[in-house]
């Protein structure tokens, strides 16, 4: 009996090749896309869980006051906070701190190397005991206790020494600090938010008393201690915060280490994170693609099974029971869906490189391959069976209960109720497709909007050179003077950060503020000529001047003036980072920070030390005329370090590349969804025209024109697609208002045009698919139609 079912199922798959190919290919691609997005989501939710006692490790987040009602959430806390927490709260079992350093030059013997920016960390001695980073050599409890110790990762040790047998070797970091290698750890796992190349012992700082040092503070709670219990005590702890200490927070709370990768965007952290909204949107799109192809599968399968009603009647006449018929149809549907399962695994491998390229700037953050995740494979298998069961259940239950007499008389499933499920599936399928098109269009519009956005400074013809370590203005003086001699170089300045993704912050005390009120402001350490180099527009006062000795002067932006409610800002005094300075100018708002975030009050001040980048304004001459000259001067200035530079426009575009690539990913998914939706609609139109062949013949015999026939059949599908369009418009409007504005601080004004365009993009191929079948049916000879069985 079972073998007979398999034979019948196989024959039907071969007999209805077009239905089978559309069903199997569509479901396979949907499963493949779902596996990619789900695998990525599973990967990002697994971050930092490899640490021992990860469920008890938390990052301390402080809420800092800003003005009368504002506040900022920051993972950067003052270094002495660790000792205070451990001493004050017996529920805290242990705590540790670390500080990220900027672009660093590491010297080994006569050779110098660039350490990747932000990958050399200054850490507490218990860092490797607190976190679970596997060590190849060295003692995790004692390796960082000795002054002048450094721990390297496996790949970093090979980079600097060409070997892992390097314990006892010496490295020079920051040009003047010698460190002895005390151990090697394995490379940081891909699921770690804390990514380092070298860990340096903290003896170079007095962490416990120096309130000017900022870093991340992590605590490990004792067993059975709930974070809410500690957070309630934080309020009393804040009231007893040491008097006179700067940056007294309004509150503290705990963020689980497992949430670092998808932490809320309003928290300022020291590690790379995913934007939670984009992450969940990607997962949602994968689910919608799967649902769309599943709807397609169920719709076509249902339509195909109802063409076999007479077969059911014959089987019942010869003695088949209802359970046997139900088992046959369910088995055929499951077999058809299972045929798609191995193909989906192949499609996963084919689509994965494109998915990784479009969805992850760093391949290590794209998640493991499907084959290494048996749980996900099992989930796909279960979904495949479920789709087959659902697709076969409706026709199996309906057809198996029909009386043979009713079947042979042709009174099968008349009326609107018979088509209700099919119509609902078509509506949902096209609503998903149109939603994808809208998402793609908005993403591209947003990318172009930010690309052309007025950032408030001139980024064209601006060259940025990485200095690799912190220089003083005096050290840079000869190099800058040499570069200025070239006729194609207009200005040369320096700064501590890169204009495009620079966002250092500090609390600022304003002269005359009530109750020593503070504001959170962006703080930019710059050299003279920075304003002129980037062509920041002075609105009030003046720029910095060497002749006036502006070391105690600052220039603020419009937002600072507006939030501080200054009518005449010139001459006002600000205190920050242990210095008091006078406002000498106001510049138009500029967006040196990432454009995903709104503009904040900003302060520019002259800093003679800690300058990490040269900022060079070029003329309109070709860049090649300047490069050779710069390389010659660089060899004199720093002969052991290669010259690294980039154009500011390129960095700006690179910052927005993720949006563009994600838009392309959504576009690929939307095309796939539209393609299979149209193929499914084509198959359904074929089924409908076939079922109504005699009706079409009768109508034509009574004088109906081809246009009448086409309009009659096409309008049935047009109404369904139109309902799907309206549903997608409503859903996307809600989505646009809630989520898009939450992701982008400066969202583009989309307007009704994209809704119309999305409708056109989805409906034209859909109606074309229907018209291909209806025109064919309308042109058929009525005689042939009336002979049709």
Instruction: Give the N-to-C terminal Cα separation.
Output: 30 Å
Coarse shape: elongated
Characterize the biggest β-sheet. 15 strands, mixed
The total of helices stands at 21
- Per DSSP E runs of 2 or more residues, the count of β-strands stands at 26
**Which stretches of 5+ consecutive residues score pLDDT under 50?**
414-418
Q: What's the gyration radius in Å? A: 34 Å
β-strand amount: 15-25%
Mean pLDDT: 81
- Computed structural class: alpha+beta
The helicity comes to 40-55%
Question: Can you give me a brief rundown of this structure?
Answer:
With 789 residues, this protein is α+β, with helices and mostly antiparallel strands. It has 21 helices and 26 strands.
What would you say this structure looks like, in words?
- Among the domains are: 54-260, no CATH class; 462-619, no CATH class.
- The chain is 48% helix and 19% strand.
- It has 21 helices and 26 strands.
- The strands form three sheets. The protein has a 15-stranded mixed β-sheet that branches.
- It is elongated, with a radius of gyration of 34 Å.
Give the key terms:
six-stranded mixed barrel; alpha+beta; 789 residues; single chain
List the helices and strands and how they pair.
Layout lengths: L1 H14 L1 H29 L11 E10 L3 E5 L1 E3 L2 H8 L3 E9 L3 E5 L2 E5 L4 E4 L3 H4 L4 E3 L11 E5 H8 L8 E4 L3 E9 L12 E4 L12 E8 L5 H13 L11 E6 L10 E2 L7 H31 L2 H9 L4 H38 L14 H27 L3 H6 L10 H32 L10 E10 L1 H11 L5 E7 L9 E6 L7 E9 L3 H5 L3 E4 L11 E5 H7 L8 E4 L2 E9 L14 E5 L4 E8 L5 H14 L7 E3 H44 L1 H9 L4 H38 L9 H26 L3 H5 L3
Parallel strand pairs: 2-15, 7-12, 9-11, 19-24, 21-23
Antiparallel strand pairs: 1-2, 1-13, 1-14, 3-13, 4-7, 4-13, 5-6, 5-10, 8-11, 9-12, 10-11, 16-25, 16-26, 17-25, 18-19, 18-22, 20-23, 21-24, 22-23
Helix pairs in contact: 1-9, 2-7, 2-9, 2-10, 2-17, 7-10, 7-12, 7-17, 9-10, 9-17, 12-17, 12-19, 12-20, 13-16, 17-20, 19-20
């Amino acid at each position: 009996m079972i073998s007979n079912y398999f034979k019948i199922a196989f024959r039907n798959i071969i007999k209805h090749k077009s239905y089978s190919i559309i069903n199997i290919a569509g479901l396979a691609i949907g499963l493949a896309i779902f596996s990619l997005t789900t695998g990525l989501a599973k990967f990002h939710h697994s971050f930092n869980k490899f640490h021992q006692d990860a469920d008890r490790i938390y990052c301390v987040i402080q809420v800092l006051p800003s003005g009368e009602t504002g506040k900022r959430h920051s993972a950067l806390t003052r270094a002495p906070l660790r000792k205070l927490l451990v001493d004050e709260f017996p529920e805290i079992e242990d705590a540790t701190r670390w500080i990220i350093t900027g672009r660093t030059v590491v010297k080994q013997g006569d050779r110098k190397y660039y350490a990747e920016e932000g990958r050399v960390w200054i850490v507490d001695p218990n860092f490797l005991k607190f976190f679970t980073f596997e060590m190849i050599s060295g003692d995790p409890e004692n390796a960082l206790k000795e002054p002048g110790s450094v721990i390297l990762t496996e790949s970093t040790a090979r980079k600097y020494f060409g070997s892992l047998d390097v314990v006892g070797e010496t490295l020079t970091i920051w040009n003047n600090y010698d460190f002895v290698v005390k151990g090697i750890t394995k490379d940081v796992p891909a699921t770690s938010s804390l990514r380092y190349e070298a860990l340096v012992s903290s003896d170079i700082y007095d962490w416990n008393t120096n309130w000017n040092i900022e870093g991340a503070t992590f605590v490990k709670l004792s067993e059975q201690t709930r974070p809410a219990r500690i957070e309630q005590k934080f309020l009393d702890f804040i009231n007893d915060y040491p008097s006179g200490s700067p940056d007294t927070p309004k509150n503290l709370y705990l963020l689980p280490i497992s949430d670092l990768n998808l932490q809320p965007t309003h928290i300022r952290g020291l590690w790379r994170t995913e934007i939670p909204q984009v992450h969940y949107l990607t997962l949602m799109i994968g689910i919608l693609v799967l649902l769309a192809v599943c709807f397609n599968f169920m719709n076509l399968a249902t339509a195909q099974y109802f063409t076999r009603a007479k077969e059911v009647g014959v089987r019942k006449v010869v003695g088949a029971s209802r359970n046997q018929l139900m088992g046959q149809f369910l088995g055929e549907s499951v077999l058809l869906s299972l045929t798609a399962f191995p193909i989906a695994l192949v499609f996963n491998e084919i689509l994965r490189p494109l998915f990784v390229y479009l969805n992850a700037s760093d391949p290590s953050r794209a998640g493991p391959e499907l084959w290494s995740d048996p749980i996900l494979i099992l989930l796909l298998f279960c979904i495949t069976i479920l789709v087959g069961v659902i697709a076969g259940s409706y026709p199996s239950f309906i057809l198996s209960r029909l009386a043979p007499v009713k079947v042979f008389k042709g009174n099968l499933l008349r009326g609107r109720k018979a088509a209700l499920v099919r119509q609902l599936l078509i509506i949902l399928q096209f609503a998903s497709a149109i939603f994808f098109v809208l998402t793609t269009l908005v993403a591209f519009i947003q990318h172009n909007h930010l690309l052309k956005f007025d950032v408030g400074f001139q980024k064209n013809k601006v060259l940025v050179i990485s200095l690799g370590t912190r220089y003083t203005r005096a050290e840079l003086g000869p190099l800058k003077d040499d570069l200025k001699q070239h006729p194609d170089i207009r200005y040369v300045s320096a700064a501590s950060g890169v204009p495009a993704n620079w966002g250092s912050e500090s609390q600022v005390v304003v002269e005359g503020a009530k109750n020593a009120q503070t504001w959170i402001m962006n703080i930019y350490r710059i050299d003279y000529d920075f304003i002129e180099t980037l062509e920041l527009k002075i609105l009030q006062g003046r720029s910095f001047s060497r002749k006036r000795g502006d070391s105690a002067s600052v220039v603020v932006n419009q937002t600072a003036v507006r939030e501080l409610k200054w009518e005449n800002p010139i001459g006002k005094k600000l205190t920050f980072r242990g210095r008091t300075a006078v406002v000498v100018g106001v510049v138009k708002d500029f967006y040196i920070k990432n454009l995903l975030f709104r503009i904040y009050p900003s302060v520019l001040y002259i800093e003679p030390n800690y300058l990490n980048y040269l900022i060079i304004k070029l003329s309109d001459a070709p860049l090649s005329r300047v490069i050779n000259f710069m390389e010659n001067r660089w060899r004199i200035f720093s002969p052991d370090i290669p010259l690294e530079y980039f154009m500011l426009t390129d960095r700006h575009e690179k910052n927005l590349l993720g949006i563009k690539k994600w838009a392309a990913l959504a576009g690929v998914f939307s095309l796939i969804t539209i393609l299979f939706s149209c193929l499914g609609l084509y198959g359904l139109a074929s089924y409908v025209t076939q079922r109504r062949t005699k009706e079409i013949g009768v109508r034509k015999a009574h004088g109906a024109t081809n246009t009448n026939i086409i309009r009659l059949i096409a309008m049935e599908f047009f109404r369904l697609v139109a309902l799907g369009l309206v549903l997608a418009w409503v859903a996307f409007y809600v989505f646009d208002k809630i989520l898009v504005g939450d992701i982008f601080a400066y969202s583009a004004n989309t307007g009704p045009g994209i809704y119309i365009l999305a409708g056109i993009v989805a409906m034209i191929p859909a109606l074309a698919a229907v018209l291909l079948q209806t025109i064919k049916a309308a042109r058929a000879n009525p005689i042939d139609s009336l002979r049709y069985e």
